[in-house]
Amino acid sequence: xxxxxxxxxxxxxxxxxxxxxxxxxxxxxxxxxxxxxxxxxxxxxxxxxxxxxxxxxxxxxxxxxxxxxxxxxxxxxxxxxxxxxxxxxxxxxxxxxxxxxxxxxxxxxxxxxxxxxxxxxxxxxxxxxxxxxxxxxxxxxxxxxxxxxxxxxxxxxxxxxxxxxxxxxxxxxxxxxxxxxxxxxxxxxxxxxxxxxxxxxxxxxxxxxxxxxxxxxxxxxxxxxxxxxxxxxxxxxxxxxxxxxxxxxxxxxxxxxxxxxxxxxxxxxxxxxxxxxxxxxxxxxxxxxxxxxxxxxxxxxxxxxxxxxxxxxxxxxxxxxxxxxxxxxxxxxxxxxxxxxxxxxxxxxxxxxxxxxxxxxxxxxxxxxxxxxxxxxxxxxxxxxxxxxxxxxxx
Length: 395
What we know:
Blueprint (H helix, E strand, L loop, with lengths): L1 H104 L2 H10 L4 H135 L1 H8 L18 H9 L11 E2 L3 E2 L1 H11 L8 H4 L4 E2 L11 E4 L2 E7 L2 E5 L6 E5 L7 E4 L2
Antiparallel strand pairs: 1-2, 3-8, 4-5, 4-8, 5-6, 6-7
């Protein structure tokens, strides 16, 4: 009844583990999706931060340009005020000279007449007239230059004011963009925090599913180990039963055949004391069953006698030889005989299990019978007690 309970329990555990595995796969897929979204937002935030850094640098440059432009405007205003003052002074000086000349001569014609009348010579008169003309021309030219300079400064001042207005407008746009970027970065940071929370929750859930799967697998492994132990005990009991039957047959044969009794008395083992008559052919199960008849008989290096003693390859050679199969004598060659069997799950009773430097015969349920060591002789052992190099099928 116990194996049936184990089987049911193992089935339930496997179903539970499979269901949790699906949940774990879904949780891991969610983790992957959240991670990708988080990385995408982080990349966007990084780009926004880089843009903000550049924008802040541009704003600082604009502020510097605005300061310089204000200095230039102040200088232009000072230049304009100076030019205007110079113009006014020149204009007033010219007015004073004109007024003086008018008050003392009246008109240009009387002025020139006065120059001729009061000159010492014609040359002196010409020189005085030329001087008066140059003085008029000088005043007019100087006044014109001052007016032009004032207007030029005024024009420069107007251009600077326009430049300043443009800079202020660009600065305002950049500051609005700065505020927009700061808001975007704040939103992205909040999204990242939200993703981090979701990611932590998904990872915690995945960890819980993984823990449950590990617990189920541990329980399954425990059940499998119990099943193997039960199978091993069953195999041992079956071997003992067959050995008892063989012993009974042997004793019966000894009673009727004194020759067989003499042969048996020479053996020091606990297994069958007669190899029996050779047969032609047999199944893998027949070979496995026959091999188990000699459990307890001695291990003898180089021996091939199933009764008086044999080594591992001698044991396999003698068992198969009993059924008419000719095998190599060495274990390595036996491990390459027949056809290959892929995996222990495909092994059948009678198959040869080859280990490095050792060989045995599979009897089913995960066990082999083999001539082990001089201390233990022929015995049953779990097939996986060593690393399996190859499994070969002869029958």
